[in-house]
């Protein structure tokens, strides 16, 4: 049973915390204990409880912001196995499904137990340098190997399960989850994938060739990416557009499906294709 609900907010997306206060009041009215960070506690009304570590104390997370805020919250909630629900204050809103006008409706449904939790595939990305793992983290949307500003075209070599696939000249390669197929991968020409599917999408970024297209890999495959340039260019691994590592010549980037999924909460039973049309076409 849900009791403690962590409220995570992007202050730049909720100026004055009006929507956050509305959410906190709605949670309190329905018998939940709203947990907020100490720095925003003075702005969220009398019913919010300050918590030094929301993710340790909460049973459930609600974030107020855009898809970027949702991704940050979902990454933080991942190790605690907490479901995350998003209140959309961003421009796109593929991940944050609840609009601000529906906050009380969403909390009412939570109180009645009308919540579904969807498991979403996550990537496990690591960098091996001279045989040792120097970096490892997860990606909920995508892992991107790309050139550093002002460097020349990268030529990235891709192997899958130890077998050579191809070399891709261009600005880099995106490896996305189905959830991330509507993010950077989509803007690079990748396919749209239903989010509940279990696969990885490899999409070249600005490929300097006429035939490079996205590749689909099964979730049990292990992808290796290396630079074919013998140290002439600089590259970086970036996860979900946030955390990353500058790569050195000889580094091996290994990407596979993570052992556990991220948990996305829903109160509206939305049709993925309805969201897709609304966000991409505007209707």
Automatic annotation (TrEMBL):
Function: Involved in the regulation of the intracellular balance of NAD and NADP, and is a key enzyme in the biosynthesis of NADP. Catalyzes specifically the phosphorylation on 2'-hydroxyl of the adenosine moiety of NAD to yield NADP.
Active site residues of this protein: 67
Gene3D superfamilies associated with the record: Probable inorganic polyphosphate/atp-NAD kinase, domain 1, Probable inorganic polyphosphate/atp-NAD kinase, domain 2
Protein name: NAD kinase
Family note: Belongs to the NAD kinase family.
Catalytically driven reaction(s): NAD(+) + ATP = ADP + NADP(+) + H(+)
Organism ancestry: Bacteria, Bacillati, Bacillota, Clostridia, Eubacteriales
Keyword NADP on entry: yes
One Pfam family recorded for the sequence: NAD_kinase_C
GO biological process, one term: NADP+ biosynthetic process
EC number(s) from the headed UniProt entry: 2.7.1.23
Record flagged with keyword NAD: yes
